[in-house]
Amino acid sequence: MRAGTIVLSLLLAVGVNVAHGTESAAVDRRVDRLLKQMTLEEKVGQLTQYSAESKATGPVAIESNVRDGIRSGRVGSVFSVVGTNSTRQYQELALQSRLKIPLLFGMDVIHGYKTTFPIPLAEVASWDLEAIQRSARVAATEAAAGGIHWTFAPMVDIARDPRWGRVMEGAGEDTYLASRVAAARVKGFQGRQLGDADAVMACVKHFAGYGAAVGGRDYNSVDMSERMLWETYLPPFKAALDAGASTFMTSFNDLNGVPATGNSHLLRDILKGKWGFTGFVVSDWRSVDEMVDHGYAADNKDAARIALNAGVDMDMQSGVYQGNLVQLVREKKVKLADVDDAVRRILRKKFELGLFEDPYKFSDAERERQALNNPEHRKAARDIAAKSIVLLKNDGAVLPLSKSVRKLALIGPMIKQGVENHGFWSVTVPGVDYAHQAVSTWDGIAAKLGKDTTLLYAKGSDIDGEDRSGFAEAVRVASEADAVVIEVGERWDASGESRSRANPTLPGGQEDLIKAIVATGKPVVVMINAGRPLVFDWVADHAPAILYTWWLGSEAGNAVADVLFGDVNPSAKLPMTFPRSVGQIPIYYNHFNTGRPAPTPTTTEWVSGYIDLVNLPRFPFGFGLSYTTFRYDDLRLDRETLRGNDKLQVRMTLTNTGKAAGEEVVQLYLRDRVASVVRPVKELKGFQKVALAPGETRTVEFTIDKESLSFFNSALRWDAEPGEFDLMVGASSDDIRLRSSFQYVR
Ligand code: GLC
């Protein structure tokens, strides 16, 4: 390369850095200039957020004069405002304030805005990081066109307990997978850069440990070792931060005796200290004043003091910052410097979003119209929905169904419904009747099949309730058909926030309806819509074919039809372990071996297991079948010993040994045989989703390095320890096809 080119390249490189740095320094200068003009009341206003009066996502007590607060500069952010018209109206109020500081509009855009995508847990079952990122990108594009600057997503809480209804909005039980999904979602939401018209700020939640609520009971206490926190629950938050997340949200729970919203260890030591987070932290809905209920704050004023000092920058919905911070600063119970730091963090984001240049930048009605009815968005939703459907059983190759089936019975309370497909946290956009906007299974199948097929229908039962009066008709209809599809599950709001279930089974009489249909002896496909792993032991034993169809969003019916008739070969794998019994919960694959591991699943004498249940999950983490089969061969490691910071190359060959093209998620697990603390029997450390034509063979490669082997050792230091490691490659956490081992030396 010529010298001149080198110099130019260097200048460009430096230039880019300088540009970025300059931009950041310029923003800081603008923030400081504005800060100097602000009264203490106006500063506190920027730390205050309320929900729009129209939609509560928590216990009510919405301040009646939110609008007055905005007009007087005492409210800096509003959330759950839907549509550009509404956001424009609110923004006009903010521009009547003395300093005309624009409002931030937030919303729970958790899995789509107008185009609803599968619930986050379902998307993770696709193990397709590109599709997951694209889903967030579409959601951001639509939300930004709808006036939103900031989504309260991704939720990255590791969850091992399906009694907790919020498993539906996360990424399941595995830290490695959840960390990669968290990063993909942040990149999807934030796009190229903040300030772009289709970029929204991400909000990583709920910081931290919320998914470990005792008993799976929402909002319940969390108690775990510092090791468990660091090793299992924090990494997805760090991955999201490293991906550039703009904001964090605190969780409701107390963690080891200290509410997360008042937890300076979490917020100042870890997030803003060790991790150097420069965005801002918002509380969860009234989680600041709830510290009084926790018994951690004497009153609202005390709660405001604790939260601000702990590092919460914005108070969502409780109003205690607005009501107490000015006084607390005057009484020197809160430092003005800490208030200024919180204001700076928030104003910096408003500048980066470009709101001071154009406060109405996101409130463009014409752009909204174009973005919200976009066939490409629905195509993306249909694609990932089909990829999220897990084939749990297919005895006798009942699936895929033939498109020339003569009589097909569609039975069950989910077949013709639309709204249930949206699941919890779907966004209601005015003028959209979701009951029809989501494609039902009936409509999806009808659109797929020709006139040679007669579709028969019987609802059979409701989703909830014990009425069995529809069973006889359902049995009659099934008896007339050549094949039966029965679709059951949870109502859209049976999983989600404050939806913990002590008995996460099929609601009402649905399991009995399935029994009646299976008794006809017809080829039956059972499809289960739910926001969480359910317990359905009888169905798992007796139904010939089972698809787990989650809540798949706007294109649900089309995606289900794509899979039922083989236009899409199911490739999804479970992101959470499915228990046989509620009594097994919490049950997860990466457990420790204990000193008395059961040699077989049925051994009970003097080993760790249950005397009244086989010691196995119903369906393990990483499990999912296909309409084709795959063979795993020829595992090769490029060395027997991995040294220091070297890399170990792992190769194997995968062959599609069936007659249908398909995709397989090849999973790589490691086990650290002996260490300074006990280590899990296996841990996911790599996966590749591989598409193969029938008969095709592909070499699949993984790289293992010191980071892959590292954990928080007995001194809680992140490090790898010398010794022997088992290496396993398989189709699920309990279907290991190839094994090897290697040594690690420092
Ligand atoms: C809720 C949820 C949180 C959500 C917030 C705003 O209580 O815990 O996830 O983002 O309030 O709706």
Structure description:
By secondary structure, the protein is α/β, with parallel strands linked by helices. Among the domains are: 380-584, Rossmann fold; 630-745, Immunoglobulin-like (Sandwich), CATH 2.60.40.10. The protein contains 23 helices and 26 strands. The chain has a six-stranded mixed sheet, with helices on one face. Strands 4-3-2-1-10 form a five-stranded parallel sheet. α4 (84-94) links the parallel β2 (77-79) and β3 (104-107). α2 (40-46) packs antiparallel against α13, α6 (129-145) runs parallel beside α7 (175-190) and α6 (129-145) packs antiparallel against α15. The chain is globular and about 75 Å long. It starts with a helix and ends with a strand. Residues 1-20 have low confidence and may be disordered. The chain binds alpha-D-glucopyranose. Keywords: Glycosidase, Hydrolase, Signal. This is beta-glucosidase. Residues 664-733 form the Fibronectin type III-like domain. Residues 1-19 form the signal peptide. Belongs to the glycosyl hydrolase 3 family.
